[in-house]
Specification:
The complex is a heterodimer of chains A (276) and B (334).
Chain A lengths: L6 H28 L4 H4 L14 H9 L2 H32 L5 H10 L9 H10 L6 H25 L3 H9 L4 H12 L1 H17 L2 H6 L7 H6 L9 H21 L1 H8 L6
Helix pairs in contact in A: 1-13, 3-13, 4-7, 4-10, 7-10, 8-9, 10-14
Chain B lengths: L3 E10 L2 E11 L4 E5 L6 H9 L6 E6 L2 E2 L10 E4 L11 H11 L4 H14 L15 H13 L5 E5 L7 H18 L2 E6 L2 H7 L2 E6 L2 E6 L1 H6 L4 H6 L6 E4 L1 H4 L5 E4 L4 E4 L5 E10 L3 E8 L6 E6 L9 E6 L5 E3 L5 E2 L1
Parallel strand pairs in B: 3-8, 3-9, 6-7, 7-8
Antiparallel strand pairs in B: 1-2, 1-4, 4-5, 9-10, 11-12, 12-18, 13-17, 14-15, 14-17, 15-16, 18-19
Classes of the chains: A mainly alpha (276), B alpha+beta (334).
Chain lengths: 276, 334
């Protein structure tokens, strides 16, 4: 028997869902709102909601004071580059775990994921030293590699779960048809896994875009992405909430838009493996 | 050409030996069927021949050349999978072209072969569709098309019809047999369905637990099963196997008699019994009859339509010239 849903119950759950949704969205909403206030209005008590003098002054100041485009470009390169590199490494790794598993495959997967449980600061020192040694401090390539390594377990896990849904017989058919391993992965596995790969790429771009610990610690000026751009407005000169909000809004806008247009893939990515 | 020889081939998964040492020769152009209950190792054996699994010990020769260590593609064999295993993201045309592209064949030749295969398999109108837009039977034909364009030394079929409904299965069975007659290429066909085995095969290989129980033509297996397993497996409905006192009368541990080799009469006969369930097919009638000679009810075939009420008393007479006798090990006597 299907579970009966009464109209009252439906209204109630809808209401709860909206409340939770708004609660989660509120900080972002407030940030965007604050970015249009003057500094005085931003710290007004009681807080001002919609009725204040809307101004674009903060954006003008932020634009004037720092080179937004350079930070944006760094973010794009670092997030995109680390994801791309990660996928290139993870596809063969996930292929082997999904289609030629050994007795230890499960353990390896868990071990990989366990590295995500390690606090990042625990390896700050060794990584910083490596960066100094290899002259990677404040370089985009250095950050690409570090962020790729940070997110690699997640990329491998996601791709692994997607690949597991692909029937092995199809890959065997490709083998019978004379495809080499490279051709099998390139012409058969990858096209079939495109939806899964797309969700993985999207989720990891977002993770890399928002990553603040390494990007703040390993960059100064040259390779600093948008996270550093925001941080530069929570300065020792005092808190300028309106400008900080404007900077934050500018930093999250691109990824928010990307997320908006790819909701479907993202939902699939976030619930990876759970729903087919 | 396509002569395949297995020489003392074994296969183990970990500590479990699924194929004990096995020798088998499949002649060029022969339609060979591997048949047996599920888990008997027939699919594994096919995958060993295909090269999808590595053999543990022994040798596989294809046309006299050692193929033991060759990758699947280099063996010159084509396989049709149970799930069809079509490439869902490619059109029918691209699916069929895939093995030729992998072989770096030139475009004109690829097109020529696709057209030829499509016309043989009635797929010409579907070449630009995706597999998802095809029916089960059409998908099966695409899978066969992908196999025939390669002009392989042999075709390997892994239960290709088990996903089709009964009516379609009979049709495809005929199509595959027809294809074999036309191409005269070696085919190895795995099935658990003994009807498919009987109707299609030149040679049947009956397997149980990785061991070959008997190899022979369908009629050889039907008329002279080497042991009780083959006797019970080949033929539908199954052969009646009787043990005990009645078998002893014939100097055997077990005797077997097929349903069509028992005469049924309401007045006289050797064994007395009571009618249980009757199955009326129109062309034949099958009676399940409880007798004193066997705990299991005996199955008896009567040609045409025959009506006997449930519980009616009847007499049965086995036609002794068709009686099969087996010893204590289940092996055929005489």
């Amino acid at each position: 028997m299907a579970r009966a849903v009464t109209p009252q119950r439906k209204i109630l759950t809808t209401l709860v869902a909206w409340i939770i949704g708004l609660l989660i969205f509120f900080p972002i909403f407030w940030t965007i709102l604050t970015s249009f206030k003057t500094e005085a209005q931003a710290i007004n008590d009681p807080p001002l909601f919609l009725f204040f003098d809307w101004t674009l002054e903060n954006y003008a100041v932020v634009q004037e004071r720092s080179d937004y485009m350079r930070f944006l470009w760094n973010s794009v390169i670092i997030a995109g580059g680390s994801t791309l590199l990660g996928v290139l490494i993870a596809v063969p790794a996930a292929w082997s775990m999904a289609f030629v598993p050994s007795r230890r495959t499960k353990d390896i997967l868990l071990w990989m994921l366990s590295t995500k449980m390690l606090p990042a600061v625990g390896v700050l020192y060794p990584i910083s030293l490596l960066f100094v040694e290899f002259n990677l401090l404040d370089t985009r390539i250095g950050l690409i590699v570090v962020l790729m390594l940070i997110n690699l377990p997640i990329i491998v896990w996601m791709l692994y779960t997607y690949f597991r849904e692909i029937p092995g017989e199809i890959l065997e058919a490709a083998r019978m048809d004379g495809a080499t391993l490279k051709e099998e992965i390139l012409y058969v596995l990858t096209p079939m896994a495109i939806p899964g790969i797309a969700s993985t790429v999207l989720l990891n771009i977002i993770l890399a875009w928002n990553e603040a610990f390494w990007t703040l610690n390993l960059t100064a000026a040259q390779a600093a992405p948008l996270t550093a751009f925001i941080a530069s407005y929570s300065s020792p000169e005092g808190l300028f909430f309106a400008k900080l909000s404007a900077a934050s809004t500018m930093a999250i806008a691109p990824i928010l838009i990307l997320g908006w247009f790819s909701q479907k893939q993202l939902v699939r990515g976030l619930t990876f493996g759970a729903v087919k | 050409m396509g002569r395949i020889q297995l020489k003392s081939v074994t296969k183990s998964f970990g500590d479990v030996q699924v194929i004990p040492p096995l020798d088998l020769t499949i002649e060029d152009g022969e339609f060979t069927v591997f048949v047996g209950p599920s888990g008997c190792g027939k699919s594994t054996l096919l995958r060993l021949i295909a090269g999808l699994e590595d053999i543990t010990t022994g040798h596989i020769e294809i046309d006299g050349k050692d193929a033991t260590d060759l990758v699947p593609a280099k063996r010159g064999l084509a396989m049709v999978f149970q799930s069809y295993a079509l490439y869902p993201h490619m059109s029918v045309r691209k699916n069929i072209a895939f093995p030729l592209k992998m072989a770096k064949m030139d475009k004109a030749e690829i097109d020529r072969r696709i057209e030829a295969a499509a016309s043989v398999l009635n797929l010409t109108d579907y070449l630009d569709r995706r597999p998802g837009q095809l029916s089960g039977g059409q998908r099966q034909r695409v899978a066969i098309g992908r196999a025939i364009v390669r002009e392989p030394a042999a075709f390997l079929f892994d239960e290709p019809l088990s996903n089709l409904d009964a009516a379609l299965r009979v049709g495809m069975r005929l199509e595959i047999s027809e294809l074999h007659k036309r191409l005269a290429t070696t085919m190895i066909y795995v099935t658990h369905d003994q009807v498919e085995a009987m109707t299609m095969a030149d040679k049947i290989v009956v397997l149980q637990a990785g061991v070959i129980e008997q190899v022979g033509s369908p009629l050889e297996l039907y008329q002279r099963p080497r042991n009780t397993f083959v006797a019970g497996f080949i033929g539908s409905p199954k052969m009646n196997l009787i043990t005990g006192a009645e078998a002893q009368k014939h100097d055997a541990t077990t005797i077997g008699i097929r349903p069509e080799h028992i005469e049924i009469s309401q007045t006289e006969g050797v064994w007395k019994g009571k009618i249980g369930v009757s199955e009326h097919l129109g062309s034949d009638t099958f009676f399940h009859i409880q007798t004193d000679v066997s705990k299991e009810p005996l199955t008896v075939r009567a040609a045409g339509e025959m009506s006997l009420g449930y519980g009616a008393e009847v007499y049965l007479s086995p036609r002794t010239e068709h009686l099969h006798r087996f010893d204590a090990q289940g092996l055929r006597l005489g």
